[in-house]
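input
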Amino acid sequence: MTSRFNTIRVGLSIRQKAVEFALHGRFQLVHDDGSTDPIREGRYHATVAEACRGPRWGLRLRSFQAASDAETFAGRARRNELPSEVHRLGRELRDGNGNDLAPYVWVVTAGDFQTEAQASAGAEELIAPHADNLGLRAYPDQWLQFDALRINRPEGGRVRIESENGTSFTLASPGRIEPLDEAARFELAEVRIGIDFHWDHVERLSFRGALDLAVDGEALTAVNEVDIESYLLSLLGSEMRSDWPKEALAAQAVAARSTILATRGRHHYGEAFDLC
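output
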């Protein structure tokens, strides 16, 4: 498979009770011990065989470019009796010469909530008593609003996969299905696209790359791990017309690739994917 430095993990179906998918071409199952088994073409139904802990959410207080600054601020928050944690957002990156880069940002969060909605609703009550001491409020009558950030990753659990002919097997989460050649594709039912835009809808879509099925609480998330160049093939057609000048398409590809590499792991920290 492609190096992890050149891949992107895309969330396709997030926290669903079941995932329906179809395989076209040659694929293999990857077990948690690294062993593999071939898996036939056809339609499959995946569900949670064993649940794991669900999402936890915190409130993003401040972001920093240096870990030391984040730890200092978190220390101040704790001394003010505001429970705080530091999280490093971003994924590892190498340049063309093989040098390790560090496209990270450190975020300080407060609180521990079971849902994103609970975190947002509890912001004022939790943070207001400490806002002035921490410099979080510029004006006395300012309403405090902080983004909710997921602060744990899905870990553990098992996935049950059943074929259309009745056979079934169980994999440790995330259950991984890898392509064995470039022609292999998988289809996923009811993929939501255009989220929160006027064209928001669901579709059955086909994808290159690997399919991961990650248990998250009592639900499943389907993730497509694909090399960035293959991802860009579909991305450009959704952002620009394919008949535009090649120079414009090339410039958009450079901008999109740079943005992906610089921000992987920041938008969906704590999730099983980089982008949705």
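quick obs: The chain is about 20% helix and 40% strand.
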